[in-house]
Design brief:
The chain is an alpha/beta fold and 345 residues long. The chain contains seven helices and 16 strands. The protein has a single domain, classed as Purple Acid Phosphatase, chain A, domain 2 (4-Layer Sandwich). Helix 2 links the parallel strand 1 and strand 2. The N terminus is likely disordered.
């Protein structure tokens, strides 16, 4: 179900008309910020500047986390989630920059990070992610719920915070949010099923890298933009062990009536889309893709409990304006929209 709030559009467009940030979150509301893919690294050790001698940087990534920190009180940001593809090349130099960008949030706002296909090998080895964002980085925070531990020696595949969950509360509502690696294998999904059942009293969100995009693997570059889209039926990681987004839905997501939101990235040629499906127990699950190719856009989910509604806002922190149209997705309804979500009787 797609529900537009015209009041929401009017207020936010008016605020941005003067090239200023939009208005603070109203009293009684709160925001979950979702960072899209952050692959725009420049300088040494980058695909974009292979011959550069300049310092390795990611201005967009740093600007996004800096904006979140500076506006966390005005927007009542209670949690930050990263959809994955944290780096472009899985090398220590880029991971060092990524860690520095996320350090802006550390100790200030609860957050979680998903492992994208660029953040691991095709076989599912996420050793470098685990070096820079290990379980030990988070385990002393009360909001850190835990991580999946493979039942085997070594953590290179799927271990040491590659799949994790966090908990947070706002306005009397209790949440659990999972950060799952790209194409999470069966043993990971079995763990998620157990934890979702254990925490069935909490409202559940999943952030994972691949979910919405071309349903079948495109055979041409043009297909990434124009092939039929929905929940994807192909995978990039873990070889035959990897589950496609459709398989993750069937094996896990649709079974839990406390799950209401799935956030993803990965597909820059689809960029922004949202679909709503019903779980097996009749609950609405809203799936939202945001991959803005590191243009500075940030996805903000503003929860309005008294109106049983979530306003989904895409805001460009570089241009200080709403993202309303792009060259890839001209439909404003895919960047600025709302959905119903019961929070109050």
């Amino acid at each position: 179900m797609r529900v537009w709030s015209f009041w929401f559009v009017f207020v936010f467009q008016s605020a941005c008309a003067a090239a200023t940030e939009f208005t603070p979150a109203p009293e009684g509301t709160f925001t979950v910020a979702v960072i899209p893919d952050t692959q725009l690294y420049r300088g040494q050790h980058t695909l974009g500047d292979p011959d550069s001698e300049e310092e390795l940087t990611n201005h967009i990534f740093y600007s996004i986390t800096d904006w979140i920190v500076k506006h966390r009180h005005k927007q009542n940001i209670v949690f930050v989630s990263h959809v994955g593809d944290i780096v472009d090349q899985n090398i220590p130099e880029q991971w060092t920059v990524a860690q520095h960008c996320m350090d802006r949030l550390h100790g200030l706002i609860p957050y979680g990070v998903s492992v994208g296909n660029h953040d691991m090998t095709r076989d599912g080895d996420s050793t470098l992610f685990q070096r820079y964002f290990p379980e030990s980085r988070f385990k002393d925070f009360q909001w850190y719920g835990g991580a999946f531990h493979p039942n085997r020696s070594g953590s290179a595949v799927s271990g040491n915070n590659s799949n994790s969950f966090q908990v947070f509360s706002a306005e009397g509502l209790d949440f659990i949010i999972f950060h799952l690696e790209c194409n999470a294998p069966n043993n990971v999904l079995e763990w998620v099923n157990r934890e979702l059942t254990k925490h069935s009293d909490r409202r559940a969100i999943v952030t994972t890298h691949m979910d919405l995009g071309p349903m079948l693997l495109p055979r041409t570059l043009d297909g990434y933009a124009n092939d039929p889209k929905g929940r994807m039926q192909w995978n990039k990681c873990h070889n035959d062990r990897g589950n496609s987004a459709t398989m993750m839905w069937d094996k896990c997501y649709k079974k839990h009536d406390n799950l209401f939101l799935i956030c993803s990235g990965d597909q820059r040629m689809s960029q922004a889309m949202h679909v709503t499906e019903q779980g097996l127990l009749g609950n609405s699950v809203h799936s939202c893709l945001s991959d803005y190719s590191s243009d500075g856009s940030l996805r903000l989910y503003r929860f309005i409990p008294d109106e049983n509604r979530v306003d989904v806002i895409t805001y460009n922190v570089i241009r200080a304006e709403l993202t309303q149209h792009t060259d890839i997705v001209d439909d404003e309804d895919e960047h600025q929209f709302s959905f119903d979500y019961p929070m109050r009787p």
